[in-house]
Amino acid sequence: MHVASSVWRSVADLLTEPLAYAVVVLGATGTVLLSRAMRRGRVDSVVGVLSVVEVVVPGLVGLVLLGDRVRSGWAALLVVGWALTLAGTVLLARPGTRAASPA
Predict the structure, then answer these.
(1) Are residues 46 and 65 in the same domain?
(2) pTM for this prediction
(3) Rounded (to 5) percent helix, strand, coil in the chain
(4) Of 1, 9, 69, 90, whose CB is crowded by the most CB atoms within 10 A?
């Protein structure tokens, strides 16, 4: 989506902007889905997966769609970091996994 104008002179200008509707609809959808996931699952798993997804997905979008680049020599570290992050998220989100209880 592209912003039609970066200057909104009135509320009417904002109401004609499709991106404003997308932000409201996607924000509400995300809130509903998060609360539903927290009711059905464990909070630690849900928040762990959410924390990873909200960092990794925008990073991938930046690299794939927006032309962002990885610093020279750091691509291997990026791949290793993403692989470890994905592995940890999968382990955390598995059904029946219990978090270590504090001693």
Answers:
(1) yes
(2) 0.61
(3) 65, 0, 35
(4) 90
Residues 49 and 99 in one domain: yes
Cα distance between residue 58 and residue 55, in whole Å: 6
Contact 69, 26 (CB under 8 A): no
Handedness of CA 27, 28, 31, 36 (dihedral sign): negative
Looking at the structure, tell me whether residues 36 and 47 fall in a common domain. no
